[in-house]
Fold:
Amino acid sequence: MNTQLVARFLADKCTPAENDKVKQWIESDPENQKLMEELRKIWEASSRQDKHFEELFNPDEDWQYFKERIKRERNTSIFPITHNIKANRARFSQFRRIAAIIVIAALLGILAYQDLYTKPQVADPVLREISIEKGHRGNVTLSDGTQVQLNGESKIILPKVFEADKREITLKGEAFFDVTHNPDRPFIIHAGEAIVRVVGTKLDVRSYPEDDGVRVVVKRGRVELKSRKDFVKNMAVLTAGEVGKLYRKDNQIKERTVEDLDVYLSWTKGYLKFKDTPMDEVAKQLERKYDIQVEFSDSSLKKMRLTAELKSRIIQRNMDVISTSLDMGYKIDQQVVTFYKKKEQ
Structure:
């Protein structure tokens, strides 16, 4: 983590991407949190006496001393890595203070005259958003040739041009990916609390806000599913025919092999297939596919489990299949479908 980026963070001048980068660094280790607290205290203290700040510190002398310390402390950085901090806490106490002085001086503009604080030369990537509303599906081909099919109420956020060493996007909702193979440029999908990494494969990723986790279904190839909170220890490698899910409640990944992928991928072919699926989950998928609102006259109906294929393009026929399979009734009032127990009518 460089001083310029930390300085921008403390001065509240970071872009959203830079903010995320610094926050991830802070949260990655308790020692980083302590160091940031020290820097913030110095910054807050300096803000109360910035008129006399130049009298308190000499940026030229501090910077020269700082560079000499860097030469003497091999295998370290302005912010030493975790094991060096823990092993040499006392040794770096003065080192930290000097780093803090440089940061605060930069924030106050003193170092601007010494050419020690310059704006980053690399421009932030230009992002674009592709979204699909309820009742629709959409297809898009990315700049690397990867094909993406978006389910209803879903969107992806990605740069107009991928970086040279990786292809990185953010998903909200559900999408099926046919990723162009490139082992030198991994394809990375950020979905909720999960990070999905592939080099060339076909997979489905689902991450709706109301879901209890992030689900990945692999049709072909090999996929890495990781937790954003603990991506080193909490990781699963999935292959064709496997489903992995990262649960939000306990941040655990569970994986299993399935025989019928159409239960998960049928939406990409224009129909819905359910196997022992609770009706409250069926309702969510019906709402996305048909842009309707599904209601239940009795909450017990939500727990009933459906096994069926809904292939008709006419919504009434699909509702007939559900009502016959579960022996329940339904009525349609404009865009609202209400399921009820037959004895209620």
Summary: Residues 271-344 form a domain with the Phage tail protein beta-alpha-beta fold fold (CATH 3.55.50.30). The chain has three domains: 3-114, 127-259, 271-344.
